């Protein structure tokens, strides 16, 4: 396997592994908590590194994942005092823990693998250099297997506990009544997020994990209402970002992790604008249609319920425009639309409802549920 | 303590301490409003989002002049804020997701651009990287002058529009009903907060700036029930942690200034949360225990 | 009656969020000096109606007039507003006096600071609502009824001619309710107009002399004696009107 292929595979595994728990974070409105955790796991990694001096030690993963959970716990404790709001609590806790981590790194490590730069960017480009050797046979980059395992863990846990996660996310009270423990699910999810962030750390660094956790699910959220579909789409987008991001990084000779993060943003932007039902363009078109329908209804109802004026045509239109506070253009345009659909006719230049129009009025009034 | 005297005589230290103090004052004052309006994390988002602006400004102008870089940061921060608002307004995506999304993508863009900048001739991006974690030791006298000038303008505006910001933060509907233009006030206050973030970036960097916005206000709130006192205390706490951070990082080798300042203000905040009279946690526990023992005593008296 | 005799006139007002109309084709006029109750079922648009009158929400069509003036022509600070107490974060660092003084900000205009006169006026209004001994108290330590009284004092300090109140009796104790009613009649004696969103049908005939019944559309608007009867209540409340037989005049 070529290094390029290995890197892309790692990128794909990491992106997909991040997107899965990320979907639940987005739905539970805990996106900024993921930001918090991805910053603070650095402290766990540093502390574990200072103990073992081995960047490959499994203690790193344990320590970091633990700190992730501690972060959540500390934040909630702070919030429970009711002296601090939730957003302030998040900001204070992660800044403090992250600062301590940076201080420790600057003072005590200074090794090429754990300096303040690699913390941010990760070293995906160097991943192929670390080989996995089993029984004397080189079977590929170590990171490939680590990220592959990470992805497997995420898929298995989410698949097995799918209905628990679903219920606890959408209706925690119902979940409690049914005998599930929302609190347990909450902390389990946070542990999974911490674990994934640690696994992703070496590849893409600390802060960018947020992009991989939040952006693909948010993009998928614009395309579907179904949780299962959202998870599948999130991972698909994650994979896509991984590959495209790598290609762009190679073409432009920039950081792979940074490029992947930007790609998540570009993909989001594309979907945000062009998505069939919820995209910006289709929303604007729908809004325009709704506004003109609404204007039609307003005018029709106005004509139905007010007595026809006996003045000459100019005044009639003028009066209506003044009472509704519409400009002449909007009024004539709406009259035109109503005439086209056969609900309105002009009698001596004064608008009057046809039989069809009067029927529409009746239906509309009934839909308002009064009289 | 006798390392303090030579310290005060050192030009670099004075510059750093002054810069840190200015940062503390400005972010303390404006951060109070951000905290009260529950926009703390917005500060986090804007600071991260400022990074691509810094790098782009360098790539476009080739200059590492602080004013130019900070101008880029300002534009980038405002663009991010605009994007976040647009996303929330035109889709069902909630604000926290939009914040995390825009912030991390912008930051990623900044990092990618940074690695691009590595390839340009004026390649030493140490000058640019100082915006990530801050590097107070690179502050120059002209930077201090600029911070002081901008800070003075910000504080003057806050003082002039004090009651407007006060009523807007407390009850925007009522403010609107008696004739204040809340849209304009919102824009102005948000703009001031963004500028406060930008001028602090050099000292503590994009990652840690949000702490300087949030922690002083949170700490000050515990000691006071009046807005003006909260804001003043916030400025004092901010300045104090700035100077303390400068002292500690100068006295002990290999201590990065930005993170040390954040640790200082976090300690101040923790002390405030625990010990402040009235609101403080320990005081509350003490009162609870006292009430409980009083009840027990009375119970015994009755029986 | 011509436009000068009216405190507020609403013409062809329609307010909608997205496409769903909350208020439709509202047309009503409130004479000066009346104590008006706005009643209707939940979701009828009562709060939206007074917010539209205050200019806090933008209508899809229609207009509001104060006397013969458009909203742009009148002095905004001469309109008092007592919102629901749940609309504000009571953990804000402010004392009772601070909040009441905010009512004077409209009179001060941009940049100016409140002075002795404003403080004295604020204390006077706190006396009126029976909260003067709490002037220095932090607002987070107030009960629901006390919060309502503070909002009331804040509106009184504006020395307005027209007051809008959103459910001022909701969640308050009997003592506070009595004081609010007394205050309202005092203001009425001074010729002020009060438009109050009210939730308790039973007290409408006792506290108010004019009533507006709405349910997205206007059902009725007029003196309590003429308009507040079973037929109109049924129209406004649908089937639930039958349970309200006892409430009608």
Number of structurally distinct domains of chain B: 1
**CATH fold name of chain C:** Rossmann fold
User: How far apart lie the N and C ends of chain B?
Assistant: 60 Å
Q: What top-tier CATH class of chain B fits best?
A: Mainly Alpha
Question: Which oligomerization state do the chains in this entry correspond to?
Answer: heterotrimer
Residue fraction in strands of chain C: 15-25%
The CATH architecture of chain B: Orthogonal Bundle
Portion of residues within helices of chain C:
25-40%
User: What is the residue-mean pLDDT of chain B, rounded to a whole number?
Assistant: 88
What is the CATH third-level topology name of chain B?
A: ABC transporter involved in vitamin B12 uptake, BtuC
Explained architecture:
- The complex is a heterotrimer of chains A (371), B (303) and C (249).
- Chain A has 16 helices and four strands.
- Chain A is mainly alpha-helical.
- Chain A has two domains: 276 residues, ABC transporter involved in vitamin B12 uptake, BtuC; 87 residues, Winged helix-like DNA-binding domain superfamily/Winged helix DNA-binding domain (Arc Repressor Mutant, subunit A), CATH 1.10.10.10.
- A two-stranded antiparallel sheet of chain A has the order 1-2. In chain A, strands 3-4 form a two-stranded antiparallel sheet.
- In chain A, a hairpin with a 2-residue loop joins strand 3 and strand 4.
- The radius of gyration of chain B is 22 Å and the shape is globular.
- Chain B has a single domain, classed as ABC transporter involved in vitamin B12 uptake, BtuC, CATH 1.10.3470.10.
- In chain B, 83% of the residues lie in helices and 0% in strands.
- In chain B, helix 3 packs across helix 5 and helix 5 packs antiparallel against helix 6.
- Chain B has 14 helices and no strands.
- The longest helix of chain B is centred in the C-terminal third of the chain and has 42 residues.
- Chain B is an all-alpha fold and 303 residues long.
- The mean pLDDT of chain B is 88.
- Chain C is of the alpha/beta class and 249 residues long.
- In chain C, the strands form two sheets. Chain C has a six-stranded mixed sheet with strand order 5-6-7-3-8-9, with helices on both faces.
- Chain C is built from nine helices and nine strands.
- In chain C, 31% of the residues lie in helices and 24% in strands.
- Chains in contact: A-B, A-C, B-C.
- Chains A and B meet through helix 2, helix 4, helix 5, helix 10 and helix 12 of A and helix 3, helix 6, helix 7, helix 11 and helix 13 of B.
